[in-house]
Amino acid sequence: MTVGRLIKTNDCVAEGASWLAENEPRFASALELTGPLPLRLRKDGFAELLGAIVSQQVSVAAADAIWGRLRAAGLTGPRKIMWADDEELRACGLSRQKMRYARALAESNIKYKSLRERPTDDVIETLIEVPGIGRWTAEIYAMFSLGRADVFAPGDLALQEAAKILFELPERPTEKQMRVMSEDWSPWRGVAARLLWAYYRVAKEREGIR
Hints:
This protein is mainly alpha-helical. The protein has 13 helices and no strands.
């Protein structure tokens, strides 16, 4: 098994968007509204997943503040997390549950570099074994930290709502329905996700929703 196509540059995203527009007229219409799609690549590794845990169920501003305190305290690596006591982590803003998740990630001994060479399904199954890492987080990691071109996040509410609007569906599709829909967008499901997210923002602005 191989990792498949990787998204590394804006040209890769543009290639995927062109393919989607050629194969699905509604994507062509959406692309006219959104313009060029963002690359949105991130770093991979422990800190990226720790940041995802920090961001769960809090505002962006709160997550940024907590992450800033963790970074200032030097607590963004697995060894430092394992060595830190509850008081140190609590002072940075982590709840008891997130302390447990952070330590579980630190103790998971995931070989992040090896994930770059493993099939996407394998990557996702490895990550969701860690408490606090759900399927959505694992899919987003594969999409943006590993640059996988053909991974989607069907449980994402914004993607579901965008699909409802763009495809004029009577109701928001479920995660299962989105997973089936996205099969038609292979091998560029990661670009389809970028397009739907971009379209969602445009659609909501046109409706006057903030």
